[in-house]
Every structure is written in C-alpha cells, then in structure tokens.
Write a structure and sequence with these properties.
The protein is an alpha/beta fold. Helices cover 37% and strands 14% of the residues. The relative contact order is 0.17. The structure holds pyridoxal-5'-phosphate. Residues 59-61, 85-86, 88, 131, 153, 155-156, 177, 179, 190 line the site of pyridoxal-5'-phosphate.
C-alpha cells in the first residue's frame, strides 16, 4: 500500500454521468437488444476510421472470429500472428480450424516483425493478424508489401495513427475490442470493420443464427443497444481520452527519463495512443513486486506468450519482452493525486535498479 494506504489499480474504466444517462435512456426505451443504437455505433466508428462499414459484436474475440470466417479461412490455411500478444488471437485461429504460424516481435519494441513474417511466408499463409501493441502502430507498409490480407487488431490502439492515417484504416479487416478497460468501452464488446461489402455482409450474416431456412453452424455474436449507447457516448470522449493519455505519457517520460530503465519509444511517423505505458527493466517481476508492495499495481502486459502455449521455442525478442516489460498505470480516470503518488514512488523504486546492469540503450527509432 502507498503511504495513505490506497492502491492505484493497473487499469480502471472511465465512466461519466453522460455514459450513465445514455445507458439508462436505452433501458427505459423498450429496445434493449441490437437495434438503432448498434447501427449508429457501427456507422460512427466506421466514419472515424474511414471505413465503408462496421459489424458490432459481443467481444473483440468474436469480431476476430467473424473476420476469419468472412475471409473464408479454415482447415489447411495458415495464419501469421505474433507471439507477444493477447491469447485471444490464438483462440480465434484455432476456432476456424486454421494453423497458427507464430512470429517473433521486432528486435526493439513490441510489435510483429515484418522481416520474420516474410521469412515464414508460404503459399498456404492466407492472412496476418497485426495487433498494434500498447497503442503503437505496427510496421504496416512493410507488412502490406507481403501481399497477404492484413487483419489489423486495434483492441489497444484506437486513436493511434500510422504515417498520418488512423490505425484501423489500412488492413483488409480491422477489429476492435470494447472490454471494460480498453481505449473506449461497452463493458464487453467488439467490432469488425472493412471496406469490402462482401466481408461486411458475411460477418453481419454470421453474427446471428435465426431466420434462415438452412441450419449450417452459426452462433449469436450480437451487441445490445445498451452497450452501443455506452459505446457512442464513449466515442464522443475518445479525443479527450487520447489527450489525457498522451499528456500523462509525456509527464511520465519527463519524470522517469534519467532512471536506469527503457522508456516507451515512439516511431517518428506514428502517433501513439498510449493504451499502456510500458517500461523496460532488468527483471520486471522483481520491480513489479516492489511497486505493488508500495500500492502501485503494475503488470506484465502479456500474461503468457503464444509460443509458450504451443510449446514452441526460438522467440528471443518475445522472451526479452516477457522478462523486461512492465506496464505502469496510465488511464484517463487517474486523479492528479494518484499521478503524483505514482510518479514519486516509481522514481524511488526504479532508482534502486541502478545496482543492476543497465539494459541495452533506449530504443532507437
Ligand atoms: C483485448 C484484446 C483482444 C480481445 O478482445 P476481447 O474483447 O477481450 O475479446 C484481442 N486482441 C488484443 C490485442 C487485445 O488487447
């Protein structure tokens, strides 16, 4: 616990009275399930990302599953995905019966390595799933040059940009997650976006199970209007959320810059959404324990890498990230008092890392 005995949680949703009003209004309207609010949420997010359309779902994992189905992927198809990411990606790939081909991340940073992806390319590779980890855009131009459909996973990156374009505006398919503590929330929820009418129609069709004369395998992946009302209200505040996240990030960087740690790097042609503020330390487990003991809840941002689930070896950069990456609390609802406490404690505890060998120099971009 910190000096005043309170815990600063690693993440927390940001809900204001407008959000509550929006949901309450739907609850009294008689239309709770998928309806007009869902349609508007799809339109508004598609507009923001410059996409033809969106298909809202009950989770990001569902959106990814529908995306793989809409691309017609299944048994015998290979799909590239990074090891250092959310295990939801592996689940979706396996759910359609495709073969996961796990790729290491870049030597510096946390995103899928385009060079490694090229090395693993075969005729059977039919898609690449690209999460923009922690809010930083992956190397999209290079990945696009591989000539395979790209699925941008914007679960952590809504509001980030890549070479002047919003992340999520580039891949054949984009998926988003609106889990409680993502960039914007609907409690649980997700969306698939695309410019292809065929993909949008297939995904919309597969989201629901009823009203067909045949009964091939289907499921129910629909979002409710209560969730979409919250999503619309949150979307209005996305610019303010981003401003707050970026302001906090630059203050953290200012306060921590002379410590023996690696700070988050931002490539010159990207705008980081700062979903997470991830520092590199010698031993993230040890430093995390110390910060937790002092009331700052820090986490390894990836619980277990994908290659470990598959019992594969040879992912040195993912292993490096697992050993060194530590996510410290950064979200719009942090109070100024919490920020002050957090930076004070972090500066003290991270200074103690000096008695340990310094990490490779900070990232060069
Ligand atoms: C959260 C997350 C998902 C899964 O989204 P859910 O809404 O929890 O199903 C997928 N990919 C990434 C990178 C995530 O952070």
């Amino acid at each position: 616990m910190s000096s005043n005995g309170t815990l600063i949680p690693h993440s927390r949703p940001t809900i204001d009275p407008d959000d509550i009003r929006a949901v309450t209004e739907v609850m009294g309207s008689g239309q709770l399930a998928q309806g007009e609010k869902v349609r508007r949420f799809e339109e508004d997010l598609a507009f923001l990302l410059g996409r033809r359309g969106g298909v809202a779902t009950n989770s990001g994992t569902s959106a990814l599953h529908l995306g793989l189905l809409a691309l017609g992927l299944g048994a015998g198809d290979e799909i590239l995905l990074p090891s250092y990411t959310c295990v939801a990606l592996l689940h979706a790939v396996r759910y359609v019966g495709a073969i996961p081909r796990v790729v290491d991340i870049e030597p510096e940073g946390y995103n899928l390595c385009a060079h490694e992806s090229r090395r693993l390319l075969t005729r059977r590779v039919k898609a690449i799933i690209i999460p923009h980890m922690f809010g930083m855009a992956a190397d999209l131009d290079h990945l696009a040059s591989l000539g395979v459909p790209l699925i941008e996973d914007c679960a952590q990156a809504l509001g980030g940009t890549y070479r002047g374009r919003p992340v999520g505006s580039i891949g054949t398919i984009t998926i988003c997650s609106f889990y409680a503590t993502k960039m914007i929330t609907t409690g649980e929820g997700g969306m698939l976006l695309s410019d292809s009418n065929v993909i949008l129609q297939r995904a919309r069709d597969l989201r629901d199970y009823d009203g067909r004369t045949t009964c091939e395998t289907r499921f129910n992946y629909k979002m409710t209007d209560m969730q979409a009302a919250l999503g619309l209200s949150q979307l209005n505040r996305l610019p303010a959320f981003l401003e707050r996240r970026r302001d906090l990030a630059s203050r953290y960087t200012g306060a921590l810059r002379n410590l023996p740690i690696t700070l988050p790097a931002v490539k010159p042609d990207t705008a980081h959404a700062f979903y997470r503020y991830v520092i590199g330390v010698d031993d993230s487990a040890r430093v995390g324990r110390r910060l937790n003991q002092r009331g700052i809840q820090c986490k390894a941002p990836v619980f277990r890498p994908v290659h470990a689930y598959l019992e594969q070896e040879g992912f040195p950069h993912t292993e490096r990230a697992m050993r060194t990456a530590l996510s410290i609390p950064l979200y719009p609802s942090l109070t100024e008092e919490e920020v002050g406490t957090l930076l004070g404690v972090a500066a003290e505890e991270l200074q103690r890392e000096e008695d340990h060998p310094r990490l490779a120099s900070s990232l060069r971009f």
